[in-house]
């Protein structure tokens, strides 16, 4: 018999993956892969332009992977690299106008999907699940 911890782990993984794939299907017309639209969304949500290495850390990818992803997004006209005013070795990443338009599309699709998927969930259950996931996220970051 499978333990509740093992069931939870499997459900968490499959749900997160299914969630991303469902949004990805809704965004197929953008002709961007999941990693690209997630990168654009992460930049847009940042209170200030992130550095390439900060962005890599937030997305959970290695720096060389981030560089090649940003190269593609620069070539597509969605992002620009700007030198940091405080450290010339650091490149900050900002969205272009085209990148902001992509983010608006991503945000609208994600908001609609979230509302659609969560509409039948009891608000108290949703709050409890959210708090649990946030606690687990903090614990995993602490143990890393």
UniProtKB/TrEMBL annotation:
Name one molecular function that GO assigns to this entry.
DNA-binding transcription factor activity
Q: Which InterPro entries match?
A: HTH_MarR-typ (IPR000835), Tscrpt_reg_MarR-type_CS (IPR023187), WH-like_DNA-bd_sf (IPR036388), WH_DNA-bd_sf (IPR036390)
The organism sits in which domain of life?
Bacteria
| Listed name of the protein | MarR family transcriptional regulator
UniProt domain HTH marR-type: residue ranges:
5-138
Name the residues that span the membrane: none
> What is the source species?
Janthinobacterium violaceinigrum
Keywords tagged on the record = DNA-binding, Transcription, Transcription regulation
Decide whether keyword Ribosomal protein is in the record.
Answer: no
Determine if Transferase is one of this entry's keywords.
no
């Amino acid at each position: 018999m499978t333990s509740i911890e093992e069931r939870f782990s499997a459900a968490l993984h499959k749900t997160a993956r299914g969630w991303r794939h469902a949004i990805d299907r809704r965004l197929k017309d953008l002709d961007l892969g999941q990693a690209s639209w997630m990168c654009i969304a992460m930049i847009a949500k940042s209170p200030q332009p992130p550095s390439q290495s900060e962005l890599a850390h937030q997305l959970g990818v290695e720096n060389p992977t981030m560089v090649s992803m940003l190269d593609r997004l620069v070539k597509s006209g969605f992002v620009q690299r700007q030198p940091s005013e405080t450290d010339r070795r650091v490149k900050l990443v900002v969205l272009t106008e085209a990148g902001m338009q992509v983010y608006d599309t991503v945000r609208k699709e994600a908001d609609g999907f979230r509302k659609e998927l969560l509409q039948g969930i009891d608000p108290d259950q949703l709050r409890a699940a959210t708090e649990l996931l946030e606690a687990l996220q903090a614990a995993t970051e602490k143990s890393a």
